[in-house]
């Protein structure tokens, strides 16, 4: 049985590996067993990327709640 692939170092590495897998699969030259292994690895990378993006969105939401306020055009300021 094949050993599990290592987790990517970061989002960018995961995305680059995923792009390489897609390119190799689109080429159509992989044997069936390798295509299945590539598909499985691609699914793992997609899950990793989705989690990383979800985590980033949660961090943005936290920052938005504490820092940003709604913009009200013409409402207030130093106008006479």
Account of the protein in words:
The chain has 80 residues and is mainly alpha-helical. The chain has a domain at 32-59. 66% of the residues lie in helices and 0% in strands. The chain is built from 2 helices and no strands. The longest helix is centred in the middle third of the chain and has 36 residues, at 32-67. The protein is elongated. The chain starts with 10 loop residues before the first helix and ends in a 13-residue tail after the last helix. 4% of the residues are buried. The model has no long low-confidence stretch (mean pLDDT 86).
The geometry reads as elongated
- Low-pLDDT runs of 5+ residues are none
Biggest beta sheet attributes: none
What is the tally of beta strands? 0
Order of helices and strands: HH
| Assembly status | single chain
Average pLDDT: 86
Round the Cα radius of gyration to an integer and report it: 22 Å
Beta-strand proportion: under 5%
How do the strands and helices of this protein lay out in sequence?
Blueprint: H1 11-27, H2 32-67
Helix pairs in contact: 1-2
Question: Brief overview, please?
Answer:
The protein is 66% helix and 0% strand. The chain has 80 residues and is mainly alpha-helical. Helix 1 packs antiparallel against helix 2 (32-67).
Search tags:
80 residues, mainly alpha, 0% strand, elongated
